[in-house]
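Practice problem: predict the structure.
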Amino acid sequence: MRAPRTAQPRRPPFGRRAGTLLRFPLGLTLVTWRYVWRVTALHRSEEEGDGGDLPPALPAEYVDECVQRLLDGSGPLLHRRFTVLIEGSRMEPEMLMERITEDFNRAAPFGAAVFHKTVGPDRSACPGDEYLVQMPGPWDGPVRVVHRDAVSLRLATLRGHLEAGQIEFRAAAADELLCFQVEAWARAGDRFSEVLYGRLRISKEIQFNMWVHFCLEAAAIAGGRPRGGISIVTRSVSPELCAGAQGC
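Answer:
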């Protein structure tokens, strides 16, 4: 088990943030184009969340001053679950997760998101590995793998990410179908990010489209096709409830 590296936490300089805003129109255009021309049925629902929507506790062995905890963020927490049921696939859940975690770029939106491994060996993701996710909008961010088993993997955000929270990918058998799911617990990383993330809803929609695409690509990797489209459930949790997220 590899311990996480230790480094002095630091926020990205203003120049980098300004640069993300300059690159934003291209990223928004690409995301909007894909959304408009997507023919897959999307079943969206938004609900009021509660204390049961808080993320799992972070494993202590992979937490240091670089981790951007939920309590470090700003604004409400969005607990989102993206689910696709895959038919026509002969792949087992374990194999699908192995294929995806060998190279996240297989499922990431081409030209809109790139995963660069910055810490860890050049192989399937393991706890302690770190990635920088680069996108053409104001979305670049470092993450660390904090959990991995045969059918799931969870990432935590690091300092400098525009979000604070965790995201988990998982696969499971569902009767004669294969189920793939992306579950995110995230709030804006700071007050600057909250303007884009919550008040303008810009980053929220970029995240939405990225993980919808990820689910569709997971179905393609599995050699199957989505049954009934993709289900997206969003539950919003107040900042006051987030204050009780100790250890997350």
